[in-house]
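One record is given unchanged without comment:
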Amino acid sequence: MAVVQFMVSLDLSVVNVGLPQIRTSLGFSEVGLTWVIHAYALTFGGLLLLGGKIADLFGRKRLVLIGLTLFGIGSLLGGFATEPGHLVAARAGQGIGAAALAPAALALLTATFPSGPERVKAFGVWSAVNAAGAAFGVLIGGLLTDYAGWEWVMFVNVPMVVVAMVLAWRGIAADGPSVERGRPDVLGAVLATAGMSLFVFGVVRTDQHPWTSSTTLMTLAAAVVLLAAFLFVEKTTSRDPLIRLGLFRNHSVTGANVFVLLLGGTMASAFYFVSLYLQRVLGSSPARSGVEFLPLAFGVVVGSVLAIKLGGRLAPRMLLVIGGALTGIGFAWFSLFTADGSFVTDVLGPSIVASIGIGLCLAPMASLGTMGVAAHEAGAASGLLNSSRQIGAALGLAALGTAANARTGDSGTLDALTDGYALGMLIGAVVVVGGVLLALVVLPRTGPDAEETEQH
């Protein structure tokens, strides 16, 4: 499951550095190029809830193998793309595979390690490779783009898929449905998928249509209507609901989803701003920028190891608070960017502090999001947690990117660019601190080995 999660996280960032070369090679327009990113985000974010429910209904091992197959085919076809439409379709296929993989993998982890020190260790390993995948994606993408060609940011997934399929086939115990197959909630599935997809679509297109434009407002309003209708159907349906609303009475589930929504948005924005600062202000090449991202990757691993060490002594809630505070401090430090700065003085220190904080957060975040959830709902809870992270990433990047662009204005000078990135990081720090305060209020005061039973 760690290999699976590394691959899914890697693909959220590995393509970014290769976008200029992809544009030149395949003849993308400036607007069309954004769909290399949006196609993956849209299908991944829109189908996560459905993926979690299917995992519960038809077996998690089966869905992991199906998801890996779809992901591998999409990666292979993407590398052979000869025109823009081919690559966008391949990225959508990757997103569908990822939406099947992510909740099934987390549900398997939850079911295999329900409590105790082994759960702390398992989620620590999972969280380390989860965030390291996103950070290493920038390094791997830069190196492959510079030395092998953009096609390899797609092809690189194929050997990982093969390894993951072998490990999954041999290492995961066969499982059947975790719930009896009642009448499926087809209407709820359609409303949830349409609402989530439309919401992500509206947010990611704010780079072309401002937040106050009629296009964006109408798109987001339609998404809200669809999601409200979904909640109504889930509350009143006589069929097997896509997600039981009673899950939200579990304070652990609710608190973890709110926290991951906020942290997911600020993490995605931080990676984006730091990458742009390195390349556009400091003048680093794609490959060098990837190398300069290594402290972020290693810091997350260090934080995850610390979470394992401290998990036997501190409650998950306290680990979140400590990790969130460190992340906020690191983001605030990033906001001191200067136009005549350097990697050592402006990036290295805050990278270490923020990444250790992120590593401390990820394992307890995932553990709390599935704590006290019945076995037959683990997939649904995992899908919900992944959905919160994906929505947070799309919403946070769009909102903070808009704020940064507004501060930068039309001048395009190094000072203006730096001011924009610094403002984005400062807002991110405030959002993370807000998440810490919410965690203190909402999350239960459970010990590290306690079982969350509030929903009963």
